[in-house]
Design brief:
229 residues, mainly alpha, Heme Oxygenase, Chain A, 2 strands
Length: 229
């Protein structure tokens, strides 16, 4: 992922997702009743992605009219979510003793570094001073509700915004002279190989109906988050 698209993805998706598959054989898709689970998730996210593009927040980014203070406020809401989800990832990395433990440890470290970047940017010593909006609270609660379940569903929750990202990235229309031109992407990140890799590894333990419900709930949370920024 190029630096410009990564910055947009990082700032507006605290849900930053890293899976190392370099040098590995392309995984077989996780199929349920003959349907590729990744394709089911992607197709189910398209309408919500379009709605996100229609949000006032994205519209003002595109036309360059977004108030910098509003941008900063949105970033702080994301920092709150990053901090809280990062705590959950750290817990999962410590409590789990299976193949997902390393994944959770990698995510926890990624979230920690991301939080440090934002706290340095806004000269904060801690994220505890941030007052979360209801949408941020609900997003964090969504992940808390996944903690008692099979760990793969927590991972699927993290996948929601990542699968939505390519559509948003490809359809952003920002004038190069805009204050927000740094969000312009010169390349398109395709999350399919990484996501299909982890879905394939745990396919036998995934219930399609439950997985799709978790994913659908996740993209709805993302949409609500954008509409309240």
């Amino acid at each position: 992922m190029g630096s410009s698209s990564l910055l947009f993805f990082f700032v507006f998706a605290d849900w930053f997702f890293i899976i190392t598959t370099a040098g590995s054989i392309a995984p077989s898709p996780c199929t349920k009743n003959g349907n590729n689970l990744y394709d089911l998730m992607l197709n189910s996210s398209l309408e919500t992605s379009k709605l996100i593009m229609e949000s006032n927040f994205i519209q003002e980014i595109e036309d360059g009219s977004l108030n910098p203070g509003r941008f900063a406020s949105a970033t702080l809401q994301i920092l709150h979510c990053q901090t809280e989800i990062g705590k959950m990832l750290k817990y999962l990395a410590r409590e789990d003793h299976n193949t997902l433990a390393q994944f959770f440890a990698m995510q926890a470290e990624s979230y920690r570094k991301g939080c440090e970047v934002l706290m340095t940017l806004y000269k904060l010593e801690t994220a505890s001073c941030i007052m979360p909006k209801s949408s941020a609270k609900k997003y964090v609660s969504y992940f808390k509700s996944l903690l008692p379940q099979n760990r793969i569903y927590f991972v699927i929750g993290l996948m929601s915004p990542v699968i939505m990202w390519p559509y948003i990235s490809q359809n952003l229309s920002i004038d190069p002279s805009s204050t927000y031109s740094f969000m312009l992407s010169n390349d398109i990140y395709d999350p399919r190989p990484e996501i299909e890799g982890i879905l394939s590894q745990h396919c036998s333990s995934i219930n399609k109906v439950k997985a799709m419900q978790v994913f659908t709930d996740g993209i709805e949370q993302v949409k609500n988050f954008f509409y309240t920024l």
